[in-house]
Amino acid sequence: MPELPEVEVVRDGLARHVLGTTVTAVDVLHGRPVRRDPRGPVGFADALTGRRIEAARRRGKYLWLALDNGDALLGHLGMSGQLLLQRPGAPDERHLRVRLSLVEAPGSAGFETVASQPPQPAGELELRFVDQRMFGGLLVSAGGATLPPEIAHIARDPLDPEFDDALFVHRVRRRVSGVKRQLLDQTLVSGVGNIYADEALWRAGIHGERPGTRLTKRQVVELLQHAREVMTAALGEGGTSFDALYVNVNGESGYFDRSLHAYGQEGLPCDRCGTPIRRVAFMNRSSYFCPRCQPVPRRVGPTARA
DNA sequence: ATCGCGACCTGGTTGC
DNA sequence: TGCAACCAGGTCGCGA
C-alpha cells in the first residue's frame, strides 16, 4: 500500500510531468472517490476544467496539485490508490475512477523530459485515479494551493525540514497512550503508517504498547530518528522503480520484500536476536514485534495480547 | 477535551 | 466444488 515514500515518488513524478498543463476535461467514473468534495462529482469536474497546474505538494500521505486560481486538487491514495499518467486512448484500468485530460500549454517545456514513450498526440495526456478499494479520494480544495484547509489538522511528517522534534517528544511524553498509537496519530506526526510504525519500533527496541509517559526523551528522539531512517531508505528504493510517463504506486516495491524486520514477519526469526517475531491484534489490524528486543510492558501486557 | 473504536471498501485467500 | 468468512488498513466520525 502507498506509504509516505510512495506518495513522495508520485508527487515528484507529477511535479516533473504535469506542471504547466491545463485540465481540459474531467470524467468521474465512480462517485465514491470524490465523496469528500462538497460540490459533488459535477461540481468537482467543473472546478477543475480550464485550470492550470502550477505545483505538486505533499504533507504526510496527502498530496495536492496547486491550481492557477488558488484552489487545489487534493488527493489521498488510501490503501490501493494510484495516480497514473497515460496517453489518451490507453485502455481503461479495471478500477479507473477519475480521468483528467491534460494539455500542455503552448510554449511550455513540460513534456520534454518525457523520453522513450509510445507515440501520442503532442502535448496531450491523462492523469488517472485508479483505486480498487476506494479508501482514497480526490477533492477540489477552495483556496488550498498552499495548504488545503481540509488537512490543516495534519501534522508535518518526519522528513519535513520544519518538523518540530522537540514538540513531538514533548507531546508524546505527555500522553498515556501507547507509543504506536501515537505514531499513527496524524495530529502528532504524519506519514507513519502501520508498516513504518512497526519497523521504527523494532529498530528502536520499543514495544508499541509502551505508554508515552513511560518513555525517556532520548527514547522518543531515537524512535523518531528510526522512523526517518526507515522511510528514507524506502524513498531511495521507491524512486528507482519510477517510470517517466507512468507515475506508479507499487505496493509490492522491492523495499518491502528486502528490508522489513518486523512487519509481516510473524514466526520468522528476529534479525537481531533470532527470537520468532510475534503478531498481535491492534486497532483492527496487526502489530508485529520481537518479544525479546521489544519486551511487552508489564502494566499493559495482558491487554497487548488480547 | 481527549481517547478509542467501528465503518467504510474490494478482492484474494482461507476454511468448512 | 461452492460459498462464506476473514484479512489488508488510513481516515473520519461518533460515543464514552
Please give a quick description of this structure.
The protein is an alpha+beta fold and 306 residues long. Helices cover 26% and strands 21% of the residues.
Q: Secondary-structure map with pairings?
A:
Elements: H1 4-17, E1 21-28, H2 40-48, E2 53-59, E3 62-67, E4 72-76, E5 81-86, E6 96-104, E7 124-131, E8 137-141, H3 165-174, H4 179-183, H5 194-204, H6 217-238, H7 254-259, E9 278-282, E10 285-289, H8 301-304
Antiparallel strand pairs: 1-6, 2-3, 3-4, 4-8, 5-7, 6-7, 9-10
Helix pairs in contact: 1-6, 3-6, 5-6
The protein binds a DNA duplex (16 and 16 nucleotides) through residues 1, 32, 36, 61, 76-80, 95, 131-136, 175-177, 181, 184, 186, 193-194, 283-286.
Description of the molecule:
This protein has 8 helices and 10 strands. The chain has 306 residues and is of the alpha+beta class. It has 2 domains: 4-151, N-terminal domain of MutM-like DNA repair proteins (Alpha-Beta Barrel), CATH 3.20.190.10; 165-298, Helicase, Ruva Protein, domain 3, CATH 1.10.8.50. The strands form 3 sheets. The chain has a 4-stranded antiparallel beta sheet with strand order 1-6-7-5. A 4-stranded antiparallel beta sheet has the order 2-3-4-8, covered by helices on one side. The longest helix has 22 residues, at 217-238.
How many domain units? 2
Please name the CATH topology of the largest domain.
Answer: N-terminal domain of MutM-like DNA repair proteins
The CATH homologous superfamily of the largest domain is named: MutM-like, N-terminal
CA-to-CA gap between the ends? 26 Å
Count of individual helical segments: 8
What overall geometry do the principal axes of the alpha carbons give? elongated
